């Protein structure tokens, strides 16, 4: 598990390999991840958007950004958590992801970024 705390918001990431697929005349490697966002601060916050940089071992980079996570913009009071699962497809059996969440602090009305720590994606059959 990979974890990081930014401005009182703890991000935890767990990953798993889902399988090999043939898509658009190419072999693709599917990975899943579970993210847990924990508000360790003293203020209520809301996640408004996300930014991901996904890179595979063949140096292909994909940028993903959008509103919320899995169609939601969760509000977290102090001590609360929000978890969700998602995934990505790579053209290589190895890769990594990192990014950030844009959030709003309800007490100060300030917007801030919470870093998502870099985490590795690797197919178990490709490890030596």
Automatic annotation (TrEMBL):
Pfam families: DUF525 (PF04379). PROSITE patterns: APAG. Residues 3-128 form the ApaG domain. It comes from Autumnicola tepida. This is Co2+/Mg2+ efflux protein ApaG. InterPro entries: ApaG-like (IPR050718), ApaG_domain (IPR007474), ApaG_sf (IPR036767).
